[in-house]
Please model this.
Amino acid sequence: MNAHKKNRWHVEGEITELDKKVLYWQNKGKVVPTRDLIKTPEQIEGIRRAGVVNTGVLDAVAAAIHEGMSTQEIDDICMAYCKEHNAIPACLNYEGFPKSVCTSINEVVCHGIPKETDILQEGDIINVDFTTILDGYYADASRMFIIGKTTPEKEQLVRVAKECLEIGAEAAKPYGFVGDIGYAIKKHADKYHYGIVRDLCGHGVGLKFHEEPDVEHVGKKGHGMLLVPGMVFTIEPMVNMGTWRVFIDSDDPYGWEVISEDEKPSAQWEHTFVMTEHGVEILTY
Model:
């Protein structure tokens, strides 16, 4: 039986207000989370601590990134920061990924592999995506960087991608639905005729690198999993200047690097969020 078609929320003992709200939607046939997706206050604090380190990694990259540096140097910065803070880079050796961080330049949508031969040039835009493991807790975020002066078109793409993340976060409400996030993101991107990548998405995170739910960046209001206080997840829209379609680089021996189908530039921003009774809180400032 499809997991989304069977009851997922089970109550033992006294029914709380949260139970009542989740059961209300479950009884209406909506997809609801299992209890293990609702993090305890202690777990949220652990993820928050991982988020502090993750932010520190990206801050260290921001302070050093410049024209003429290799993406391998970015990887070196991330590794050094992790070692200094007793953290582990989640990407390193994850399903064969060979480096600690993803460095995706221009038309590389995501999962770009750091290399000595990838040298940042004036006008490049680059996404740096890092996930930290600290004391068994995970936090995941990415930022865009513009190298020197770039074109107005690329500047707009980077700005709109960040707006898509912010608008998606605003759309994420307690007892709303994952589809609300994707609906809001695509509506904003459509104003600029940008493509929102559909082959990859945000995800639950915290106790593992990838958990439920899948946070699609194209969606319908009122569809997808119910968003319940205590859930931790990423929102990470990948916004392409042209088509939303992508392909895997055939020259990548690891089979990781994703490129826009028309090879036009792509931009992405990402945060890890916890859902509260009042909306989402960012854990990766």
Summary: Residues 1-5 have pLDDT under 50 and may be disordered. The first strand starts at residue 88 and ends at 89. Helices lie at 17-27, 41-64, 71-84, 152-171, 178-190.
